[in-house]
Each structure stands twice: as C-alpha cells, then as structure tokens.
Design a protein that fits this description.
This protein has 236 residues and is of the alpha/beta class. Helix content is 47%, strand content 13%. A six-stranded parallel beta sheet has the order 2-1-3-4-5-6, with helices on both faces.
C-alpha cells in the first residue's frame, strides 16, 4: 500500500486549502490534513502532532505548515519518508519582524480578525486576476472557523520559530520544493536557497500561482505532488 500522506496547512487555513489534492491523491493512499494546534511554538505543535501520525509517512507543508514539517523532520527523521515544502522558508524571524506582528494580535482581539489575517496573507501575495478574490474569501472563511485564539497561537509560533537550515542540510529523503511564480510573501528566490540546502531536491515553480498554489492552480499543484509521491527513494 502507498505510504500515507500528511499535509500541514498554512497560517489560519484548514483542510479546504488542500481539497483538490485530497480528492485526487486520496484515490490510492490515505491523506490526512493535520491542524496546527497544540501550542504557541512550532516545537509544541510538532510534539502534539507526532503521536497522532502514522509510523512512517510522506509529509507536505505550506507556509507555517512547512515550518512545522521541518520541525517534525528534525525530531523524527526516521518517520518521514519524503518531504514537500511549499511556499515556506527555514529561517527564524528577526526581533524586528517578530515585533511587527504584535499589533496584529491586538487587532484580531478587537474584533477585526478578517483584517488581521489579510495583513499576514495579503491579496498581492497571490497571483493577479479575478481568482485572487475568491481565494481571499476562502482564506477569510477558514480563518473565521479557526477563530481568534488560533490566530494568536499561530502568530506566536511564527514569531518564535527556530532556524532549520541545519535540519534541511541533513535531509536525505525525496524532497519537493514548490512555489507559486507570483508569490511575493515567500518568493521564488527563497526556494532557490532551499534547493541549495537540500542536495537532490526538486524545485517546482507553479506558473499563475502566488502564495497558495493548491487553491490558485490546483491541477498543476496536484501534478507536482503526484510526481513527488512517485519518485523513487535514492540514498544520498
């Protein structure tokens, strides 16, 4: 049987982020979208998830989900059969970057959750075109379902995340680095840097997509993930 696939969503997103991929990839393997719950640090989220995950699995994460995926790889490399990092980065936030996020928590707690989420993932982080507004509406709907407390926890996790460059240099499993060509939040150059950290990794740029390729260009995203799941395991 094909190895299970575990997907970790972006900041304030739920399983709807990956709905097209769940439908297509779930035909021949178990697919789980795990919520980013369990604490205010990436380490706490990973610790909360690991006991609930299969013994060995393919792991993919987007944005904050990619950061949690790197921490899972750091903690349990023998359990991760292959890795997909989508529109994410391995670096810690600087104190200045972290400080800029504090007013967002105040704004969300004051009743402006939609506006606070839209400052973290802005419309111009997505590819231009009429589809941008539909994706932003889906993002807002997912965020409302998760609520203000989840927003606060996930902002804290972004602020406090560790540098994972050393983790990625030790990665020995088939790895896909996927990025929307129009992503201005986690741009292509950051994924080129990721590819330099992981020898043998495959870099896939999705044309017509910005920061959320699974929703913006679902067919091409699914194709890239399918190829990654079929890639042979080669010891490096």
């Amino acid at each position: 049987m094909a190895e299970p696939l575990v997907l970790l969503p972006e900041f304030m997103c739920d399983a709807r982020l990956f709905l097209p991929q769940i439908t297509a990839l779930g035909r021949d393997r178990p697919v789980t979208v795990a919520p980013l719950a369990g604490g205010e640090r990436v380490e706490e989220i990973a610790s909360h998830l690991l006991p609930q995950l299969p013994q060995r699995f393919a792991l993919g994460g987007l944005g904050l989900g990619g950061m949690v995926a790197m921490e899972i790889l750091r903690r349990a490399p023998d359990r991760v059969a292959r890795l997909a990092l989508m529109d994410t980065e391995p670096l810690a936030e600087t104190p200045a970057q972290a400080g800029e996020r504090d007013p967002l928590i105040v704004r969300a707690r004051s009743g402006a959750l939609d506006a606070a989420v839209a400052e973290v993932i802005r419309p111009d982080h997505l590819a231009p075109g009429p589809g941008r507004f539909e994706v932003m509406a889906t993002l807002a709907e997912m965020a409302r379902g998760l609520g203000v407390e989840a927003f606060t926890r996930q902002i804290r996790a972004l602020q406090r995340r560790r540098d994972q460059q050393a983790t990625l240099r030790r990665c020995k499993v088939p790895t896909l680095l996927l990025c929307g060509a129009e992503d201005t939040l986690m741009p292509v150059k950051r994924h080129v840097f990721l590819a330099e950290l992981i020898p043998g990794a495959t870099l896939r740029i999705i044309d017509g997509a910005g920061h959320l390729p699974p929703l913006e260009v679902p067919e091409d995203t699914t194709e890239a993930l399918s190829e990654w799941l079929r890639a042979p395991f080669v010891l490096r």
